[in-house]
Specification:
The structure is a homotrimer of 421-residue chains.
Chain A: H1 3-25, H2 32-36, E1 44-50, E2 59-64, E3 67-74, E4 77-82, E5 103-105, E6 111-114, E7 120-123, E8 139-140, E9 142-145, E10 148-153, E11 174-178, E12 182-184, H3 188-196, H4 208-213, E13 221-222, H5 225-231, E14 232-235, E15 243-247, E16 252-253, E17 256-260, E18 266-270, H6 279-290, E19 293-297, E20 301-304, E21 313-320, E22 326-335, H7 339-360, H8 363-379, H9 382-385, H10 393-405, H11 412-416
Antiparallel strand pairs in A: 1-10, 2-3, 3-4, 4-8, 5-6, 6-7, 9-10, 11-22, 12-22, 13-16, 14-15, 15-19, 17-18, 19-20, 20-21, 21-22
The complex binds FE2/S2 (inorganic) cluster (3 copies) and fe (ii) ion (FE2) (3 copies).
């Protein structure tokens, strides 16, 4: 290289180095545990399966926080055990053998485990082996309720399930319509952040539900600092769920915007579905949103009230499957003591009033947005290089909140089984 | 995080660290060379191709221990050379040019190599180049016999082929029926271990051969320590094959088993095909197995006598293709001086008496089992984390034996060509 | 292992280590910048798109030197900006929003950027945000000419486009026929080297153009050292394109060759299409090649005159897409003042006289050859382990020349955006 080009190269390198130093210095963010929690928060409850997908005698292999788990229903009750034989690592789930309702037998060398505590109860070919009783697989605490199977991933005595659920879900009169969960190629944290993010509302201008309803949504919700403080309520009693909630009433929905042009003029913009409508008509269309609240709850869920219809509450979970995917669980909940109304909700009503509009017509756009963020956050040091702006304070509030209330952080060592899962 | 959760995290981490230290301490196992031999044992003979797949003038690219090799038959004789031009790395096999029976010419810049010693004999475009005679590719010692092409991968003067083959295969009166080799997504060592593993017999309850024969197989073969010692014979004369053999006669085949239940009762189990048969009938069905022997032989093969019919010996090889796959070679062998019987064996008889039952109906289940073990051994430190039990002593005998008799260990450096292959 | 095998292992390892030391010592080659330039040369112009693929209002995502770039045409003029929102990394191109001709709006949170300088002009939902004006994306200098969109990737003030183009391309009377670019799974440097490499001509014996023309090509072009010096002309004035050119007139085309055999005899070879032709006929067929010149030009292009017909000049570019792929751009150029001839060239004539023979019938074989070299250069330390011979001096001349004239080297840090692209 010529002297000139060498100098150029050197100069460039200096800038690169400087930038890297700048970023590294910022490395220890106030929400560092959130940045570290690539594989999820350990010692929490997560939805794992829908009850209707687990009839008597069935089994399913699932992955939670990178851990392979086998779930089965025997004699009516559901159990979850590590899907990995301690002997030589075989996955039980590839040929599961339930010779009794109490046990699972490994299809390779007949080690037979207790479904309740995971202990090695016997070996069919070697009933006198000394290893019997001294060995086992991890079993996972499990609660089945409201048509959902929840699993606790961790090492500690599990706190009550309700500590890890947004309020209302477990109410006696809550009637829960479960949609089919699906996997998204995006880290679970991007799920939490997208769901609550007030600015992301703009993407719902592409949502079928809004378009079909003639609803103009917005260019993004905005709130002043004062409004955020006024309308956000923290829930962090020691014995109970942890989360926070924004009342939407004070949020501003912008349906107009403008772009200043070089010639000094301004390009006025208006959302297509807002055009030609009076202010009253526009308010009427968004009033239902104003009634509602949106909340984030530990470890990874969102609760939206009065959505998509006034009497329905929407719950969704971004369950860490591994470090690159999450499983998206969504539930439409009403509260009623009327058993006929409950039955109707679990049938046609839930489908028509919640599942089709909310799941098929609205949150699919969120799923798209989360997957689109993955490259930057996964391969381009996004957690360190993002450039946040004022409205993102509602996200950093969550990051700090979650960092504070997390009961632990899942690591790759846990995934590999270094700590017996 | 709160103080409580920080304490929890710290405690968990300590357990993880402790477990890692425990495993690392055990790192240096008595069979460490076996653990290191991910890419195979260097300086050994391996079956590479079946003769019938190599007619005059043909060529095939194969991979052995991660090395790319081109095999061709010219003037009747088969040669094997490094499939990588020293000039700029081109694979000859993507457009092989045999302008003479003695040479191969690289299709990129016409470097022309001697098929016998690999030396650069000429360059078509530059016959006066100084590099001619000073450069070459590796050639691989090769023996073609019994319809099989064996290749020696290593650096030393190859010992006789028979040192790396189970006895009998090369006998003058051995008639060898070769099935089509295929690749399995599993490390080669899992092949060796699965094949000999007495406990693995349980998986053959899923084998078509057993089911169609009404044979009840077992919950796994078992032997006392005394029986193992009594029936295992080592072969390790300096000049000859290295291996060991178990006579099956003293092995116990369990066709019943039981699982103790929580209420103190016991669930009795019996293999479906054993039900309703008298002891005599059951013995009759397994007597043929008792006649036999099973042996493991350096570097990576299994020999089973009287299988699947009394006069047939089954040989199989788990040839390291690379560190994640092996190529499965299987041979059905009879001994006869009668040329008509030999001919029948190589035609219909071998197919009906050996290939269909043994290859299509039995060892496919072994192939499945090996691939199922791969995740644990490859990604979850299985070689350090497995939890062996008493019957596995027959495997650790092999691990130590192989560690002792291996002539070398293949490394990734060899694969990349750092030592001219 | 026995003592013997341990000794063997040790000896082998010593050879491996020795070879590695040898290679490492050679690590710092005279053309080290070339070896380091896996991702391309920074601070240069590259063809990025063909104008006809970019009608008014359209947009395309391209990758250059690993950088994701969005190109759009607005109000007739083409702009190129970083395809990555500084806010949270979203790719604009997955849902590009051009609400004005001057701007692009991110579909996630409405950050709106100036297409000219990349600055954040406004945020639709937060027009008062403090981040406006303090943030932006990289914009790429761009020149559209001769039906091609060229983009400058780097940090410095871009020198004139003509400094990075082989002479003639931008001439006023140059008429440029553009074929469709395509991606090749090969590092861009292998493109440069293959294109100029005199020995590679042998591969064109497989080219349809040669076979259909009855042209016998050669076993590889050869030249003595004196002929190389005599016929190579360097162009390296500070203000202008950098490159060098070989006149083909003194090149020898070998259409016969021989292979010495072990028995002392010699196998004579002659290219099939040369057989039965007189010397005059053979000369006539290759005379057109002798008229021509072949040149390599910074940063990554080849210029061939009188190819495939006397009045046509062939230009091609191996544009680094990322470190494992390049995009292959090819152009057939004539010089004429006659507007009717120009029009004919851009229509039928260019297709029949240049595109079908050269692009479809000839350079596809180069594309094949480059992809075939990739494994060795990418995974087997090819840049250090290749074994060059005398004719390759024409390649090392280029490697040194390019190392000298490169304005910078692209690094993975640039790709990740550590230096704002
Ligand atoms: S791997 Fe499960 S019993 Fe052996
Ligand atoms: S790569 Fe084989 S001769 Fe050049
Ligand atoms: S990611 Fe582009 S505006 Fe937020
Ligand atoms: Fe949303
Ligand atoms: Fe088997
Ligand atoms: Fe070429």
């Amino acid at each position: 290289m010529t002297d000139v080009t060498e100098q150029l190269l050197k100069d460039t390198q200096e800038h690169v180095d400087e930038e890297k130093r700048r970023v590294e210095k910022m490395g220890n963010r106030p929400w560092q545990p959130w940045i570290d929690a690539e594989w999820g928060f350990r010692n929490h409850w997560y939805p794992a399966l829908i009850s209707r997908d687990m009839p008597e005698g069935s089994h399913k292999a699932v992955q939670l926080l990178g851990e392979d788990i086998l779930v089965t229903r025997q004699n009516g009750s559901v159990r979850a055990i590590e899907d990995r034989c301690p002997h030589r690592g075989i996955r039980f789930s590839s040929r599961p053998l339930f010779y009794t309702k109490e046990t699972i037998t490994c299809w390779y060398h007949t080690w037979t485990f207790d479904l309740d505590d995971g202990s090695l109860r016997t070996i069919l070919s070697s009933p006198d082996s000394k290893v019997i009783g001294k060995c086992g697989v991890k079993t996972y605490p499990l609660v089945e309720t409201k048509g959902v199977i929840f699993i606790f991933v961790g090492d500690i005595d599990p706190p009550p399930l309700e500590y890890d659920l947004a309020p209302g879900f477990l109410d006696e009169d809550a009637v829960v319509y479960c949609s089919d969960p699906y996997d998204i190629a995006s880290n679970w944290r991007l799920g939490c952040e997208n769901g609550y993010d007030p600015g992301h509302q703009f993407i719902h201008n592409w949502s079928e539900m809004c378009i079909n309803a003639g609803m103009h949504t917005s260019y993004g919700y905005t709130s002043s600092k004062k409004e955020v403080l006024d309308t956000t309520r923290y829930t962090e009693e020691e014995c109970g769920p942890k989360g926070f909630t924004r009342k939407v009433e004070k949020t501003t929905f912008n349906h107009t915007a403008e772009i200043p042009l070089k010639d000094g003029s301004v390009q006025q913009l208006m959302l297509p579905l807002a055009r030609g409508k009076s202010d009253e008509e526009l308010s009427a269309l968004t009033d239902i949103i104003r009634l509602g609240t949106v909340g984030l709850w530990m470890p990874c869920s969102l609760k939206v009230t009065t959505f998509p219809v006034p009497h329905c509450t929407h719950y969704e979970f971004y369950v860490p499957k591994n470090n690159k995917e999450h499983t998206y669980f969504q539930f439409g909940v009403i509260h009623t003591q009327d058993s006929e109304e409950a039955e109707r909700w679990l049938g046609e009503d839930g489908r028509v009033m919640w599942e089709v509009p909310a799941v098929k017509g609205f949150t699919v756009d969120d799923a798209f947005a989360r997957a689109e963020m993955q490259k930057f956050y996964e391969s381009e040091d996004g957690w360190l290089r993002e450039r946040l702006f004022q409205p993102d304070v509602e996200l950093t509030m969550w990051r700090k909140f979650a960092s504070k209330h997390a009961r632990g952080i899942q690591t790759e060592d846990h995934v590999k089984g270094y700590f017996s899962r």
